[in-house]
Specification:
The complex is a heterodimer of chains A (about 230) and B (about 50). Chain A has about 230 residues and is mostly helical. Chain A contains 7 helices and 2 strands; from the N terminus they run H-H-H-H-H-H-E-E-H. Chain A is globular and about 75 Å long. By secondary structure, chain B is mostly helical. Chain B has a domain of about 30 residues. Helices cover about 95% and strands about 0% of the residues of chain B. Classes of the chains: A mainly alpha (about 230), B mainly alpha (about 50). Chains A and B meet through helix 3 and helix 7 of A and helix 1 of B.
């Protein structure tokens, strides 16, 4: 892992997120009350967090398929590393989401299809890690996790399209065939936050993969020491 | 709810959201440092053996 890449991603992430915060809270005016007023400022971090978590779970889906096809543990490591980061972004998304719920609709939680399908997605990936911890044999663990990861990730399109396919949902749709519901300044804020979070996801994934590979090294070194002692 | 009453909720969400992201990065960095030391220790042990 090149240090320059890590520092570069860190710098892009910090700068983009800092500028997006400035844009959101200083440059952008507060939208009218009928468009949820000040609480609309949550949107600019809420939506990128949602997309990044979806991307992270799709990476798990693809890596799980590759593991089942090639039986190479590097894909298993990629699958659960991305799933873990997906959960982190999922928690961030939920923090923003339930706060926006409270401010826009007056309640912390509604049984809206998007919210329910996303909560199921988080529970499924929580169960993915529980399942991993239940199996100790490495190959069996990776195989079970890969199958479960593929099934769990099938909820990603269900959650994504729930607001588009089901009529009369509370959750707003910003990007649709009818148009793009943001002006230029709003788009800049959103793109900055999105760029920052994408860089952060890649950075986290690189660090997580490095940690996992170092842990593999620890196991190999311990085995070598044991075999020499024997 | 008036905008002025919404502000603490919005700021709290941003602080919490950022805390989760930064916290996870710190956790990864700390874990990397800890395992790095363990790898170095095991390599030295292997040399001595």
């Amino acid at each position: 892992m090149k240090k320059a890449v890590v520092w570069g991603l860190g710098a892009v992430s910090v700068v983009a997120l800092a500028v997006s915060l400035y844009w959101i809270f200083v440059v952008l005016p507060i939208v009218p009350r009928e468009q949820t007023g000040f609480s609309q400022k949550i949107f600019y971090f809420h939506m990128p967090a949602a997309i990044i978590s979806f991307v992270a779970f799709i990476v798990t889906f693809v890596a799980s398929i590759l593991f089942l096809a090639k039986k190479d543990f590097k894909y298993d490591i990629l699958a659960y590393s991305s799933a873990e980061i997906g959960l982190v972004f999922g928690v961030v998304l939920m923090i923003f989401g339930i706060t926006w719920d409270k401010l826009a609709w007056g309640v912390w939680w509604t049984w809206d299809p998007r919210l329910v399908t996303y909560l199921i997605l988080l529970f499924l990936f929580g169960a993915y890690f529980f399942l991993r911890s239940m199996v100790s044999e490495r190959m069996k663990q990776a195989r079970f996790a890969a199958v479960f990861g593929i099934i769990a990730a099938l909820d990603v399109p269900v959650s994504f399209f729930s607001t588009r396919l089901i009529k009369n949902v509370l959750h707003p749709v910003i990007f649709s065939r009818e148009g793009f519901g943001l002006d230029m300044n709003m788009t800049i804020a959103l793109l900055l936050a999105f760029a920052g979070m994408t860089a952060l996801y890649v950075l986290m994934l690189m660090l997580k993969l490095k940690v996992e590979h170092m842990m593999e090294d620890v196991h190999v070194l311990k085995d070598m020491i044991e075999s020499r002692r024997d | 709810m008036p905008d002025i009453e919404m502000a603490p909720y919005v700021l709290a969400a941003y602080v919490l959201g950022w805390a989760v992201l930064v916290g996870y990065c710190v956790y990864l960095a700390a874990k990397m440092s800890k395992i790095g030391k363990e790898v170095d220790h095991l390599k030295e042990l292997l040399k001595k053996e």
